[in-house]
Amino acid sequence: MIPPSFEYHRPTDVAGALAVLAEHGDDARVLAGGHSLIPMMKLRMADVPHLIDLQDVAALKGIDISGDQITIGAMTTQHELIASDALHAAAPIIREAALQIADPQVRYMGTIGGNVANGDPGNDMPGLMQCLDARFTLEGADGTRTVAARSFYEAAYMTDRDDEEILTHISFAAPRGGYAYEKQKRKIGDYATAACAALIERDGDKVAAASVAMTNLSDIPVFSEAAAAALVGSACDDAAVKAAVGAALEDIDPTEDNRGPVEFKMHVAGIIISRAIQRAWSRA
Amino acid sequence: MTKQIVEMTVNGETREVMVEPRELLIYVLREQLRLTGPHVGCETSHCGACTVEINGKSVKSCTMFAVQAQGAEITTIEGLGSPDGLHVLQESFKEHHGLQCGYCTPGMITRAHRLLQENPNPTEEEVRFGMAGNICRCTGYQNIVKSILSAAAEINSASEAAQ
Predict the structure, then answer these.
(1) Which residues pair with A184 in a beta bridge?
(2) What residues contact residue A239 under an 8 Å CB cut-off, 6+ apart?
(3) Where is the FAD-binding PCMH-type domain (chain A) (predicted)?
(4) Structural domain tally of chain A?
(5) Which residues in chain A show pLDDT less than 50?
(6) CB of B1 less than 8 A from some CB of A
(7) Is the model's pTM score more than 0.90?
(8) Which residue among B26, B102, B103, B121 is buried most deeply as judged by most CB within 10 Å?
(9) Which residues partner with A105 through β-bridges?
(10) Is some CB atom of chain A closer than 8 A to the CB atom of B68?
């Protein structure tokens, strides 16, 4: 499988990458880890006359933790996220989720920026970033802007990012309390049949704050405000978890595919959401 | 599309190739450099038969363009051992019947080599999780896992003896 011919660009800074994007518009795409885009190019489902490899753009790499603010460069790989003990101490849900993405070889190459920017509903990081209420930094010819993960996704592969912008950084506050990322998949390397990120803060016997978001259960990741509302103030008992699961299921719209019919996906989603909430509470 | 020169260090030697940007690394390794150890299996980033080591990472070379490897250090199975001097992992796969048809074996061993660099003393579960990007249709994995655990023990006892 060989893609059509393209011109290869390898800038050393963001300005250089933006210049190629400005010149070629939607004939140009940036390449992060390449493990979504290259397969699509090989299948000739993505036509990219100008490929901009970001591997030499040092400003897009690394994890910065200042106080409770975490900023991750878009070119940071899943492997680097997993390997960072400082990130694990500040936001353990990241390692828990990243270990469930693809397989070791893919995690060495696949990046957090590619995972969130691609807009593939199967990707795990978008739902997780919605759960964390992360902000995405986008850089374009007109400067820099930030967009909330919860309002970034428009449809499958459609996001708020303009063709001539690059997603450069992801930032969020270190989560407090308990956490869980639960994922049901058919085999290692598969996308989720259903996955759910949950964060829960405890105050005595009650839930003080909660956040619930889901992966691959609609054409975009789904943050369920209603699920969180059903938990806050409760003792996270069976009735509250059931109410939260019910609310979360109201917010999703799975479609039938080779992972199963809609009814099956709703069933699996219910179990996965319930497990995520219960495990997050057990760690809160 | 014009070809361009890509320079990379492959198994310790500087190599230059002329490639089109669209040429995948696996084909450049196999057809230009005649390193036919890494195999083309699924060619869809799943099976791991094409695994090589690039700058300290295990990479499926069917999912990387050769131009991306400009300046990279690459190790293939040919760089780990030779017919006259097998690598500990190769000896161990031979000893423990860690292969049947052998098609996945170069990728398995190259990946296992990196796994043991990062985790010299893995548990069976860690081996299985660390090898999850490599598929074998013959062995049922049992003897592959055994081979890697045995190689790890051998490397560790050799390095203890050296101290």
Answers:
(1) A194
(2) none
(3) 1-177
(4) 3
(5) none
(6) yes
(7) yes
(8) B26
(9) none
(10) yes
